[in-house]
Hints:
The structure holds 2 protein chains of 2 kinds. Chain A is 44% helix and 18% strand. By secondary structure, chain A is of the alpha/beta class. Chain B is of the alpha/beta class. Chain B has helices spanning 3-13, 30-43, 62-73, 78-91, 102-108, 110-120, 132-139, 159-167, 189-202, 216-225, 233-241, 246-265; strands at 18-24, 47-51, 96-100, 124-127, 148-149, 151-153, 173-176, 207-210, 228-231. The interface between A and B is large, with 38 and 43 residues.
Amino acid sequence: MTGFAGVPDEHGHFGLYGGRYVAESLMPALIELENAFKQICGTDSFQKELNKYLAKFVGRPTPLYFAKNLTEHYGGRAKIFLKREDLAHTGAHKINNTVGQALLAKKMGKKKIIAETGAGQHGVATATAAALFGFECKVFMGVEDIKRQAPNVKRMELLGAEVVPVDSGTGTLKDAMNEAMRYWVSAVRDTFYVIGSVAGPHPYPVMVREFQRIIGKETKGQVLEAVGKLPDVLVACVGGGSNAMGLFYEFLEDPVEMIGVEAAGRGLHTGEHAATLNAGSVGVLHGSKSYVLQTDDGQIQEAHSISAGLDYPGVGPEHAYLKESGRIQYVAVTDDEALDAFYLLSRHEGIIPALESAHALAHAVKIASGVKDEMVIIVNLSGRGDKDLEIVTKKTG
Amino acid sequence: MGCITEKFIELKHNREKALVGFVVCGDPDIGISREICLHLCKAGVDVLELGVPFSDPTADGPVIQRASQRALKSGTTLNSVFDVASQLKKEVNTPIVLFSYYNPIFKLGVSNFYRRLIDTGIDGVLVVDLPPEESQELTDCWQNGEIDFIRLIAPTTPESRIEKITSDASGFIYLISKTGVTGSEGLDYGEISGMIRKIRKFSDLPVCVGFGISTPEQVKNISAISDGVVIGSAFVKTIELNLENRNVLLEKLLLQVKSYKDAQNL
């Protein structure tokens, strides 16, 4: 890695983005975490232990599946492969990161872990890791998300976590993260905050990326084995951006086109969307500088997406950096397009995707239906869609 | 010498401790808020911290969160906070510290922000989520030391960081009394004293203690071991409980300031 390996710098800056914009109370904890991450996570013994859990507990490697039916449905020129993160334990890629962070928390001697969650996937994955390693666990979740992702609330409770309802602001992921940060300030001495995306203050964006890199590493080997060459296009959805960073990072120096797909909600023109990189501007939220949805006065705006996991007005700083560098293209697809893709994959491949992942799929099939030459597209199927059944049936009857 | 420094010299000369008062500007609306600020200054607040409302105040407890929401709902912006500050400056000579999260400042642009500070005559700035590692981008264009950049120190801040933070601090040091958000309860006077002793090793700046101080008793105890107290949520709570009657509200704030100043002078 040459061109993109210089980031972040020692203070967590990805070019103009990233950094550490937090109250002084949290600075020592972030420095402690950064040091622990550097000293512990790189060691052979940590990697060995983590890999054991990833193999035996998470169920890695996840398959790279050739979606034959879907490929044929679009004429067969674009071969569509799915990286099956939906088959990881708990049903999404989030577990890669939570097992990594929880193992680090254990090595640091922390007793409690906390997390924020939107769709509930990260909350479930954190509660799972907490049960595995014997932590007390609190998950902060917006009241709106508690309503639309009820099955995940039950799962977290079953796993022994306390789900803390957050009713401030819009009662979604942004507010859950605010409240988790507030709680962390008060309990910073014995509590480890497991952030679920490549967002937040340094070292979270780089740490979460490192724990999610496994997706891209596996994919590279798998695609070479399957088709004997690198893919032409990688597609992944972007809310905070962890599954996309996880898939993309390993290919940054390769001649591979990469597309991050944001949630256009009811349409970019309506203002009701979560397409931070497409329609936002540079700002500071939740401890790092990146693109945010904001007013002219610098107040953070509400995001909207049918998918709770993408319903966030910020995005990881490394994505802002990669957008600016031109290395990655970011597009947006609407609620309706994602819903169509949700049905499409369910009916053609027998795989019910998470609404988040359906955004990536929706863009992939747009590419597939327009190509003239043969190509290989890999879609990160970041999670499974069981959690979304209620919202989908409510929307479409 | 800045207005804040002069104020602390004057207080020291009179053997008094500082009462720093915080309110969210624009709570519940700009007109009333201006009156509230004026009243607090006239009632004897030594330094006024004028809070810029922000949609996502992650360091604040529920009381100040609600105040920020009220202020935003009534249309308050960073520009209207400057307007209030500039009107106050015409009527009172209380030093004013602008207290903000970074995003509204960043969005306005750091050089525009600096120009407005100078035009308005604001004396100090405290940006709660801008630690020394990131603050240069804001203060790089500041000249001549006209504006004090108020630094925060927390109970979790180790000595090596205290040294670094105090090295370019000015005005006063804001010591956060405990880990937690604004308005949370429970004070450990022993721990606070210990922190002040550590700060004193590196800096002669006045140390004011804030977060979770609300009763005259606490004001008295904290003032005995520091150079002053910062009262925020307690004033904001008074505002919240008396939104219906402006005269009662102003009268109550007056009494509250008096009770704190009396406690400091016991």
